[in-house]
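Worked example 3 (structure in, sequence out).
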């Protein structure tokens, strides 16, 4: 009786994927019970069911681990949230991060998250690739001089259409959809930016520099939790529009707002001591060290205007400026919410005066 009460049936799976069954059988004559052994092969559906159960068990364990990891990450981010809460962060957006839908979504989600935890992000953007597409569609040849876009009247019209009418509104829409509230600007709106011709205007056409920033229109929006999105187009005192390098605009806006951080999203890992070796990334450097690298010829080409705007913004009161890898998803969060960062951070430890590296390079166009 005890055996009958305890053992209703016993199933064992053999290594040969066969089903071994031991079932209690009652002898009707003697009223005694014994075990009957039967051998059955697995059906394909049964095997799949067992695999599914095992996978479900593993998945559940993995899910618990994932949840624990997320909680740990959130907990570890607390000191960074406390440090930057209420601080203004100016982000220049362009390059690879603008070409890929996945990277674009990553940047937008990062901005919205930062806004939700109390930071005050401001987004400045270029749009070189988009400009080239429309120029090609309109059969307007793209011309360059020393690596800079020659911007005649027709090209300037296209630049305004693309940056202000297309790219800017697309970013505003994406940020709104992700849960924050963005407001789009060009430099002309609210006289936010006043431009002037670049020193090489005779060759470059309507390529400009930032003459003045009036942040009056931005500050109330930032104070009330809006995310300003700024296209790098501005007009001079006579109403003539100019195409301005987005890095330069970001640096000048950061200085005018007294931002805690300026972050430039780029197509490289950051500043390298050897441009051919990605492993030679400089994680942190002050202006003195940066100037030494420039003298040694380790910073040149497209990196020059980025470094230049970082130095200018630091000299005007921005606490830190970073050049980070925009090709990596969530590099913005990585830069702000971790000690490791996502590129090169430049600091002003000695209080340098404002000084440009190369006046011609500061007018470089593009994203």
């Amino acid at each position: 009786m005890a055996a009958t009460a305890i053992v209703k049936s016993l199933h064992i799976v053999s290594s040969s994927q066969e089903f071994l069954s031991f079932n209690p059988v009652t002898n009707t004559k003697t009223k005694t019970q014994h075990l009957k052994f039967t051998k059955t092969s697995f059906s394909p559906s049964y095997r799949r069911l067992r695999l599914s159960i095992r996978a479900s068990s593993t998945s559940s364990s993995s899910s618990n681990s994932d949840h624990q990891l997320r909680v740990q990450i959130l907990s570890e981010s607390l000191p960074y949230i406390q440090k930057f809460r209420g601080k203004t962060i100016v982000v220049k957006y362009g390059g690879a991060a603008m070409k890929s839908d996945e990277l674009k979504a990553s940047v937008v989600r990062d901005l919205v998250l930062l806004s939700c935890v109390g930071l005050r992000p401001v987004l400045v953007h270029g749009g070189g690739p988009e400009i080239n597409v429309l120029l090609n569609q309109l059969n307007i040849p793209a011309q360059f001089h020393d690596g800079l876009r020659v911007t005649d009247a027709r090209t300037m019209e296209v630049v305004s259409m693309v940056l202000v009418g297309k790219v800017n509104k697309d970013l505003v829409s994406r940020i709104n959809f992700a849960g924050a509230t963005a407001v789009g600007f060009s430099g002309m709106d609210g006289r936010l930016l006043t431009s002037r011709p670049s020193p090489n205007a005779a060759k470059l056409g309507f390529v400009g520099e930032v003459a003045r920033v009036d942040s009056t229109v931005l500050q109330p929006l930032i104070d009330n939790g809006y995310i300003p999105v700024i296209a790098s187009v501005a007009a001079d005192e006579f109403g003539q529009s100019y195409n301005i390098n987005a890095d330069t605009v970001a640096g000048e806006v950061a200085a005018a707002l007294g931002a805690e951080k300026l972050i430039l999203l780029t197509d490289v890992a950051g500043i390298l001591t050897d441009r051919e070796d990605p492993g030679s990334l400089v994680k942190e450097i002050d202006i003195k060290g940066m100037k030494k690298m420039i003298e040694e010829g380790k910073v040149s080409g497209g990196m020059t205007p980025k470094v230049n705007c970082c130095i200018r913004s630091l000299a005007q009161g921005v606490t830190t400026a970073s050049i980070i890898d925009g090709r990596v998803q969530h590099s913005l969060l990585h830069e702000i919410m971790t000690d490791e960062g996502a590129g090169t951070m430049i600091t002003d430890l000695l209080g340098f005066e404002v000084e440009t590296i190369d006046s011609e390079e500061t007018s470089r166009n593009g994203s």
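Notes: The first strand starts at residue 10 and ends at 13. DSSP finds 13 helices and 17 strands in the chain.
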